[in-house]
Design a protein that fits this description.
Blueprint lengths: L3 E17 L2 E14 L2 E7 L12 E5 L12
Antiparallel strand pairs: 1-2, 2-3, 3-4
């Protein structure tokens, strides 16, 4: 099993992409920035209860060209 650790996690608000009568819907998602043996990824979940099943609603794999403002802290 791969060793991972959470760099940051918390609630974020994202645009749903579906406008109803010109109104954009915004949805709250639980997000995690995780660093593991194979790199860093950003995942978001519809609710915190989805984390143990490791079924994110979305995931972005980040490569070495992506840097955070506080990268020197890690």
């Amino acid at each position: 099993m791969e060793s991972e650790y959470v760099l940051k996690e918390g609630w974020a608000v994202k645009e749903s992409g579906q406008a109803v009568l010109g109104q954009t819907n915004w949805r709250k998602r639980w997000c995690r920035l995780v660093r593991g043996q194979h790199g860093t990824s950003w995942s978001y979940y519809r609710k915190m209860d989805d984390i143990p099943s490791n079924q994110p609603a979305g995931r972005i794999e980040l490569d070495s060209t992506c840097k955070t403002m506080n990268d020197h802290m890690f």
